[in-house]
Amino acid sequence: MRAKATLIITILAMLGGVVVGCAAPEAGVPKQELVIGVARYLQDYGPPPWGTGPWAGVPLVYESLVQRTLDGEVEPLLADSWEISQDGRVYTFQLRKRISFHDGTPFNADSVKFSFEYCVEREPGLGGAEAIEVVDDYTVKIILNKPNPLFFSEMNFYILGPASVGENGKVTKPVGTGPFMFEEYVKDQYYTMVRNPDYWQGAVKLEKVIFKVIPDVHTRTIALEAGEVDMIGIAAGSHLPAEDIPRLRDNPALKLSEKVGFRSNVVQFNPEQRLFSDLRVRKAICLAIDKGAINKILGERGMVIDGPFVPGSPWFNSKVSNYYPYSLDEAKRLLATAGWKDTDGDGVLDKGEEPFKVTFVTSVVAPEWPKIAEIVQANLKNIGIEVEIQQLEKGAHFAAIRKGRFDITIKVFGGALPPVDLSPYMSQPIDPWPPGIIIKDADLDRLIDRYQTSNNREEMIKTCHEIQEAIMEKAPILFHYVDYRIPAMNKKILGFKPGPDWCSLRHLWKAHISE
Amino acid sequence: MDLLQISNLYVNFTTKAGVVRASDGVNLEIKQGESLCLVGESGCGKTIVALGIMRLLPQNAQISGKIWFKGKELLSLGKEEMRRIRGREIAMIFEQPATCLDPVFTVGDQIAEAMRVHERCSGKESKEKAIDLMEMVEIPSPQKRFKQYPHEFSGGMQQRAMIAIALSYNPSLLIADEPMTFLDVTIQAQIMELLKDLVSKFRTSLLLITHDLGVAAEMCDGVAVMYAGEIVEKGRVSEVFKYPKHPYTKALLGAISNDGLKPIKGSVPELTSLPSGCKFHPRCPLVRDVCREARPEMKNGVRCHLWEKS
Amino acid sequence: MLAIVLGVTVLTFSLMHFTPGDPAEMIAIARYGMEDLTQEGIEWIRIQEGLDAPVWVQYGRWLNHVIHGDLGRSLIDGGLVSKDIMYRFPATLQLALASMIVSLVIAIPVGILSAVKQNSAMDYLGMTGALIGVSMPNFWLGLLLVLFFSVYLGWFPVCGKGGIEHLILPVVTLGTGMAAITTRLTRSSMLEVLRQNYIRTARAKGLAEKLVIGKHAFKNAMIPVVTIIGLQFAFLLEGTVIVETIFAWPGIGRLLVDSIFARDFAVIQGCALVIATIFVLVNLAVDISYAYLDPRIRYERRA
């Protein structure tokens, strides 16, 4: 009896689904309406306490005190100026006046304090910030426990209107100061935003932005080609597949924006692995890596870089350029001097009965990871090292890294916008995330400590050049590579420039749709 | 006039092993009201002849010859005309009644179904008739049994139901293919009695296919003995069984007449590689040279070189 | 029946907890992205969501939710799991039922025709089609259909949920794959049945070929087909994952897979509960239709 009732209910529910489905709005597209294809649905209405999180609309609704340029420079946003104390521990922000939230609540020092506390509750160590002080209505002081030159990249918390947070302490209704106001969210299908008519920076040209959830990467590309969405490739987990980029470039109705490096990844040795304790062995492996082959896999979406800095900025030390040129002869020579020879003629090097066999642990956090592992496997076979690839699920991969159960692995290193946080290279990283240790080296620890606590830009650059050379010479890694974000869009969109990091859409309010 | 006349019926099957000559020039006649018995060891082609009459042979069968029934040549009839003859004019019952009834429909429905189709009568009418038929074939409490499924019937009851189906339209000819095989001996006797009664009551001609000569003697007027796809002897039951001419017939009778079985020497030849000359010669105790070379003709009711001269 | 469903949830729960990987970490990544994640953020989530408690305590909490009629809240977005499932489940059911219908509408006639006209051109065509259908992966077929019908012809939308036009491509993608299997089964089952003596009886009765095939052969041939249809339907509920992903269809299959990767235990459990229940119900439905189709089973039950 109960089974029958359940069956009837489900059938009714299904019919209901059809009816609701039919009643969905017709797509009569008014002129200034933009549809963006994204992979993920909204996970949390709130601004994330760190980063900008997975929902691409965050920088449309919320704004932070400062913003950054594509070069990593800091520009005013909700704060129009700031001062840093001599000891580098106190940041005093002067806030802009006459700005209000979407619901009309004025923006002031209290709203900064409220937002700061919302974030600090979730991440107590945020950029080393200890306390916030309201000096007057439009002045706030943030006090750090120690100087942190990376403060602006780590402390980019969003300012949320007090009305955002519901009784349970979670954001239930996104209210910010940004150019667009949150309108509607249909779970797993789309969410929409409408123009903020009183935006403080000027008139917003687009009337409406619709984020359409399309989880499959190829379907997103096809949807752009079919004209069902106007823009793709702008948010975390929504990147263009490398293989689709040439096709999109050839499509006369579409254009690709300039590429923005947003994340760097590292392929590293296990510092505890005895086989790798000999520097000559590590160097030999670095020399045996065919960077060209890896660049081919990455396509336009990424590039192998020498160390954690992307070439082209003053932060990059040009001396490390091509530090390990592809050279099998040199690699073999180094291995031979380290005592590795193929005595039994099976193509695998050995030393005192022990063959040179290692594992490469990977997962599909990014689709190219397993392919990179295969290239490394092929490259090392050339010099007589046998690599076994272990492909794990994401969580298991992170667990393996944390427990040191790998010989070679690939992982996310962090952001690519300078100044880059180099603490993952420390013997005891300040933050145990990303998981695992890359190298244990006291000299490097001292250098990184100097870099991460300096309050002098020149000194920082000089130190980071030294660090890059040290990393290259000590060879704890096989290589770094940077991921580029390349938004693709319909040619009718004019005036759009992507923002750095997670704020791709920071400047969307300046864009408009032409005939 | 003959009700059914089969002349030169050839049925071949092309298989991977070669051409199977299942019926190799069969000639048979059945008169109105007569009952004929077709006997022979299993695998000699008796069932093929029966299915040939019904035109129910598998699609890969190659058939030639003529089958005259009430002035119509069955092999040249259209599918639809033939369908009207099946069940209506010629009905058939089979061995293993358990597999011949559709397991997922009630027995009553299967009896009534034929009537619904042929007579276009209503469901209620056909049900009443079906119950009458069930009563006629002595199925107890037919009202209740009508709603039961074949698996709820015993073997004997299933065969009674099959007989009811076959007689539902009072056909001129009933073909019964080993109707008693696989049934208990007592049940066999009952079914035989029933068939005999009904055939005489409705004055239906009967073509009984059996390997049981006792049954044949009991039930039929005429007999035709079949061996390896051809008729080797035919005549009145009383004569053939008393004075068998063909060595095969003699052997068949010998196999049952003495107490205990006396199997015939050798075995039925493969239908794909039939012996030359007389097909029985490899097993024949009286074999002569001519038997190995020339195929004997049917003369005076027997197909045997020994009898050709007389 | 309740025991089966409960057993499934216990199994899922323990399996998920024995899976390597730190759930708090996975949840943090799902919520806030990976690049700027910090360990402190992960620890905060661990405490907030009670992931520091022993597994059995966590299961007890979940069971408590079930007893109180809701399924708890998602660890990722904080939404009610029951609401999530009630929203997604009809979408999947709609997709699954429609695909089922499409596959049966194709498979049964083609299967029967192929069997009746065995070795004819029709049979070869049907079986070649079925072979292609079986061997073509769903994601490939789906993308091809989208490229042709949405991009080239512009007849149907590329993806998303909406009116009937949104349903067509995903349903065709799912339906044809399934139809291929059902066609082959229908054909072989039909061929088997056509060899049976009762079919000969039906013909000997003088029944029209239509009635022989359509009534006697059909009902018998459907007995094994119904089992497969039942199994297929149950698998469809999760098997829709790929199609749901390609066509951006907000269904339960995708929800489950997303939740597994994100270690959203509350949602995983909810899905497991629903899917287990559906499995049990579908099995029941198959048993019932069996009894309807095959009186022998009815008889055994009674006896």
Structural write-up:
The complex is a heterotrimer of chains A (515), B (310) and C (303). Helix content of chain A is 27%, strand content 23%. By secondary structure, chain A is α+β, with helices and mostly antiparallel strands. Chain A has a seven-stranded mixed sheet. In chain A, strands 16-22-15-21-19-20 form a six-stranded mixed sheet, with helices on both faces. Chain A has a four-stranded antiparallel sheet with strand order 5-6-8-7, with helices on one face. The termini of chain A are far apart. Chain B has two domains: 2-89 and 171-303, 3-Layer(aba) Sandwich (Rossmann fold), CATH 3.40.50.300; 90-170, no CATH class. In chain B, strand 9 (222-227) and strand 10 form a beta hairpin. In chain B, helix 4 packs parallel to helix 7 (155-167), helix 5 (123-136) crosses helix 7 (155-167) and helix 7 packs parallel to helix 8 (185-202). Chain B is globular and about 65 Å long. Chain C folds into two domains: 2-67, no CATH class; 91-293, MetI-like fold. Helices cover 79% and strands 0% of the residues of chain C. Chain C has helices at 2-18, 23-32, 39-48, 55-67, 81-116, 121-135, 138-152, 164-194, 197-204, 209-239, 241-246, 252-262, 265-293, 295-302.
Explain the layout of strands and helices:
The complex is a heterotrimer of chains A (515), B (310) and C (303).
Chain A: H1 2-22, E1 33-38, H2 58-61, E2 63-64, E3 66-68, E4 74-76, E5 79-84, E6 90-95, H3 109-122, E7 129-136, E8 139-144, H4 151-154, E9 158-159, E10 180-186, E11 190-195, E12 208-213, H5 217-225, E13 231-232, H6 245-250, E14 254-256, E15 260-269, H7 279-288, H8 291-298, E16 302-305, H9 328-337, E17 350-351, E18 354-355, E19 357-362, H10 369-382, E20 386-391, H11 394-402, E21 408-414, H12 442-453, H13 457-474, E22 477-485, E23 488-490, E24 493-494, E25 512-513
Parallel strand pairs in A: 1-12, 1-13, 19-20, 19-21
Antiparallel strand pairs in A: 2-9, 3-4, 5-6, 6-8, 7-8, 10-11, 11-12, 13-23, 14-23, 15-21, 15-22, 16-22, 17-18, 24-25
Helix pairs in contact in A: 7-9, 12-13
Chain B: E1 2-15, E2 18-31, E3 35-39, H1 46-54, E4 61-69, E5 72-73, H2 79-85, E6 90-93, H3 97-100, H4 107-119, H5 123-136, H6 142-146, H7 155-167, E7 173-177, H8 185-202, E8 205-210, H9 213-219, E9 222-227, E10 230-236, H10 237-242, H11 247-257, H12 289-293, H13 305-308
Parallel strand pairs in B: 3-8, 3-9, 6-7, 7-8
Antiparallel strand pairs in B: 1-2, 1-4, 4-5, 9-10
Helix pairs in contact in B: 4-5, 4-7, 5-7, 7-8
Chain C: H1 2-18, H2 23-32, H3 39-48, H4 55-67, H5 81-116, H6 121-135, H7 138-152, H8 164-194, H9 197-204, H10 209-239, H11 241-246, H12 252-262, H13 265-293, H14 295-302
Helix pairs in contact in C: 1-13, 2-3, 5-6, 5-8, 5-10, 5-13, 6-8, 7-8, 8-10, 9-10, 10-13, 12-13, 13-14
